[in-house]
Design brief:
The complex is a heterodimer of chains A (about 110) and B (about 170). Chain A has one domain (about 1-90). With about 110 residues, chain A is mainly α. Chain A has 3 helices and no strands. Chain B has helices spanning about 1-30, 35-55, 65-90, 110-120, 150-160, and strands spanning about 100-105, 125-130, 135-140. Chain B has a 3-stranded antiparallel beta sheet, with helices on one face. The longest helix of chain B is centred in the first third of the chain and has 28 residues, at about 1-30. The mean pLDDT of chain B is about 85. Classes of the chains: A mainly alpha (about 110), B mainly alpha (about 170). The interface of A and B includes residues 30, 97 and 98 of A.
Chain lengths: ~110, ~170
């Protein structure tokens, strides 16, 4: 019993760490495309590990299945939304940020 | 006679296959509670009717072995790439080499392509940015992290999941 609790704690903490890293990514990454990367990874791994950690503490099989369904629906929503945002950005001609061509300064000194 | 009967026969087979799935879903949502089965039965019938109407049978069908292989691939790739992307975000000096990449698709049009685009969006390092003609446009977070072999491997797993043939490209 205690071993399962430890494992559950570890998974919840790892999930939280991915949420933190993803949030830092959203703040620090240079353009809309890179930020989408950070978001999709949080939904997949962060929520996935949290759901796994909670499933180990669930009272019933139905609760475990319900948690997995929540994760699956979040994945579908996340994949669809990031696809739509990235496609719209490309079609509007938003050039992806690139290390070789840094964005020009916004104001002249 | 047989020709007239076959569409309704197909639709009753669909009902028989899908109604138990929706019943199982109701059981999960109600967390095993049995008192609300009246509402449950009505909901299951309505959900099955909507699904038969909106999602008629298609030729593509899922292979159970392919599904397991796909899930294992997805889990492994997610973990592997997740750590790299998390480290990229947390490194004191941000060093990214993002870019666009075009993948000529070998999958036939349909559900397989959509699933591949969704899978690559969720896997760390790639985000799908458009499906047009026979190409998938991708944005990659770091050019060095993603090679064509990984993308082809994902396409391969999707093809095996649906039992589809890949075109030679």
């Amino acid at each position: 019993m205690a071993a399962i609790d430890w494992l559950s704690d570890a998974l919840l903490l790892a999930g939280g760490a991915f949420f933190l890293a993803g949030t830092v990514g959203v703040v620090r990454f240079p353009d809309v495309y890179c930020r989408l990367h950070a978001l999709a990874k949080v939904d997949n791994l962060g929520l996935g590990l949290v759901v796994l950690g909670l499933a180990l503490r669930a009272d019933s099989v139905t609760a475990v299945v319900k948690l997995s369904l929540i994760w699956l629906l979040a994945l579908f929503a996340s994949a669809t939304v990031s696809y739509l945002i990235a496609r719209r950005a490309l079609r509007r001609g938003i050039t992806p940020w690139s290390a070789e061509r840094p964005a020009p300064p916004e104001r002249a000194p | 006679m047989t020709i007239a009967r076959s569409p309704s026969l197909r639709s009753s087979r669909l009902w028989l296959m899908r109604a138990p799935l929706f019943a199982a879903l109701w059981w999960v949502l109600a967390e095993g509670e049995t008192r609300a089965w009246g509402v449950g039965a009505a909901t299951v019938l309505a959900a099955t009717a909507a699904s038969v109407w909106l999602w008629p049978p298609s030729r593509a069908h899922l292979s159970p072995v392919g599904l397991l292989a796909f899930l294992a691939f997805f889990a492994l790739q997610s973990l592997r790439g997740g750590f790299t992307v998390a480290l990229l975000a947390l490194r004191p000096r941000l060093r990214l080499r993002p870019g666009l990449r075009v993948l000529p698709l070998r999958l036939p049009p349909g559900a397989g392509r959509v699933l591949l685009a969704d899978t690559l969006s969720l896997l760390p390092g790639t985000v799908s940015a458009g499906l047009c003609d026979d190409e998938l446009h991708l944005h990659v977070l770091d050019q060095a992290l993603v090679d064509d072999a990984d993308l082809r491997a994902a396409e391969d797993r999707v093809a095996r999941l649906f039992g589809l043939e890949l075109a030679h490209a």
